[in-house]
Amino acid sequence: MEFRQVIRNGIEYRFDSLMNEQCRINPPRAKRVKQAESGIGLDEIIQITKEGCVFCPQLIEEKTPEFPPDISPEGRIKIGETIIFPNLSPFGENHAVGIITTEHFLPLNEFSERQLMDNLVASINYIRRVYDNNRDAKFPIYVWNYMPPSAGSIIHPHVQIMVEREPLPQQRGLLEKSWEYLQQNKSNYWTDLIEAEREQGARFILANASLALITSFAPRGFNEIQFIFPEISSLTDLTNTHIADFARCLTTVLRGYREIGVGSFNLATYSGPICKPLDYYCFNVKLISRPFPRCIYTNDTGPMERLYNVRVIDTLPEQLAEKMRGL
Q: Contacts from 148-153 at CB under 8 Å and sequence distance 24+?
């Protein structure tokens, strides 16, 4: 497996080993002047948004919709602190919202393994119920946007769950390129990636029976960490052991994010189809940091990312992996 990079004028040009997408890394950019870095503080944001929050316990039953009986006879799916209900402003098929905690806000180091496990189990239950009612809805999506800079419109911690008939463009690309890799190399790209990163060492964080953690060689976002599950290809294949191991790793990484000053993030899953195991693909998850929440801030995406599909990054994956290994 080739980790291709070139250096021009002090900038590292890295290319994803599967998709060949370009990433440009220049760590000194992190020290550049950012004038728009002031304004209302985080504590004030939390207090202002808590009043009237429809995801908080005092309003959630009154203000959120219910599922039809064929999805949930009780109207909403509940496990532990998690409550799942339909999204009133959907941007996908079978779009639901999953509240993670009864608390209006939790800092990154205070999410518990139990909260994350319950949320995943409840989300998978919802996905399976949708699939049981519509076998064409076979591509599950689980997304966590934490705090407004991540595009989370509500402070209260929650995830987005969708079950679609077709894979999203990035999902489709990963599936197609993974198939091509199998045809060319007679092996699974994802398990090859784990072994290559384990051997190389600089970006490898850990591996257990359920999953491997690495920092991406050519990241799509800042402080990007990838969770790869070598035994399964779909989100719905996660067992209780997978879920427990994932929750343990994720809470550790979130504590690490907190230590390096991260205050917002996106988590996205890349799943194969439900009930169709793929020998050429492994279910995987990506986590990226976003700007710290404040009234006015410098965005981390601009025309290079949004219009040219080129990522400009100011953190080295190897340094992030070293930090996470030390937790």
A: 148/264, 148/293, 149/263, 149/264, 149/290, 149/291, 149/292, 149/293, 149/297, 149/299, 149/300, 150/264, 150/265, 150/266, 150/290, 151/266, 152/264
Tell me 155's DSSP state: S
Could you tell me the residue range of the domain that residue 284 belongs to? Answer: 4-325
Among the listed residues 237, 226, 224, 227, the one whose alpha carbon sits nearest the alpha carbon of residue 272: 237
Work out the widest C-alpha separation in the chain, in whole angstroms: 62
Tokens of 151: 């595009």
Say what the pLDDT of residue 40 is. Answer: 57
Start-to-end CA span in the chain (Å): 29
- Which residue, 187, 239, 174, is CA-closest to 211? 239
Report the C-alpha gap between 125 and 138 in whole angstroms: 14
> 320 near 262, Cβ under 8 Å?
no
* Residue 63 near residue 70, CB atoms below 8 Å: no
Among 25, 19, 20, residue whose Cα is nearest residue 317: 25
Strands (E), 81-157: 82-86, 96-99, 139-146
Q: Output the six-digit token pair for 177.
A: 């390129």
The identity of residue 167, as a single letter, is: P
Residue ranges in the chain modelled with pLDDT below 70:
32-40, 296
Decide: 286 and 225 in contact? Cβ < 8 Å.
Answer: yes
Cβ count near 183 (within 10 Å)? 8
pLDDT at 32: 60
Q: How many domains does the chain have?
A: 1
**Residue 25 sits in a domain of what CATH number?**
3.30.428.10
Q: What pLDDT does 296 receive? A: 66
